[in-house]
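Weekly modeling sync, notes
Attendees: AB, CL, MP (scribe)

Item 1: holo prediction request
CL wants a bound-state model with (2S)-2-hydroxybutanedioic acid before deciding which constructs to order. AB pointed out that an apo prediction alone won't tell us much about the pocket. Agreed to run with the ligand included and paste results into these notes for async review.

Input as submitted:
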Amino acid sequence: MRIRCLLLFVFAAIVTTPALAQVITLKFSHVVATDTPKGRAAEKFKQLAEAATKGRVKVELYPNSQLYRDGDELEALQRGAVHLLAPSVSKFGPLGIKEFEVFDLPYIIPDVQTAERIVDGEIGRRLLSRLESKGLKGLAYWDNGFKQVSANKPLRKPADFRGLKFRVQSSKVLSATFRQLGAMPQVMAFSEVYTALQQGVVDGAENPLSNLYTQKMYEVQKHLTISDHGYLVYAVIVNKKFWDGLPADIRAALEQAMQEASRYERTIAAQDNADALAAVKKAGTTEIYALSAAEKAQWREALAPVRKSFESSIGRELIQSVEAVAAQVAAEKKK
Ligand code: LMR
């Protein structure tokens, strides 16, 4: 009798607690440190998503290329081995989508307002929809502000780049940018940059300050130039089939959590980069030089041919619509 009762109890427990068997685990992999805008927004998403789904979803975070490096992570997402990524959009070229490289054109994004207006509007939506043919879906854009350049020699004028090897992300525009300056670009995974700089495999790199600081690149770079020559945009992406297969209520809760995490990311990016600059200054290993407006104009002019040469692959219309948003934001600022 006692055994029958026990069996009945176990059976009842199994049929009445399906939630236990249905926890959905989302693996979120990324390549940067946890104390960066992306790392902290990923943590925020985890918190919000788990709270909103009351334990039905568990988000596992794998920062710092722990699970996958650049390139490998996109492939892993396509085969469903990982569920969320937030790569820089400069890394979509190898998938066969070139339009995202519009963000890499030198000096095309003059300020954060322009970047936000573009990603929040029609251009941003259209670009994300291009991912669908690759089995991916874009949930949000995150922002990491301007990129700066570093090396072991001062970089003040375009000619200073001549003959130097620079690590770049896998974007044809970024390679062309450094070639235009007479430097030699080398595509390399983010996780390898510190060692490559340390061992002299490359002489320099470009990154927002939060990455330069948290990856300790400043320890192996004697000079840093605040050039604001490029802008780093991230897209949070999922495997489309996996996402569409989630229960509708879970998907809605996750989308809401993503929206909130994205708003949060925007509020911290600029401050994180400012804090990183202060920390690099304090470390005293790196001489920091900020380009004057006249020097920036010189760099912009030297790099102008890059924009022209990518009209056919990125699309002249897309480049012009980005320029139009920048002009509109500038006009509004003047008012
Ligand atoms: C890089 O590879 O340089 C960066 O895009 C890394 C990142 O995701 O911020």
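Recorded for review: The radius of gyration is 22 Å.
Action items: CL to compare against the apo run; MP to circulate these notes.
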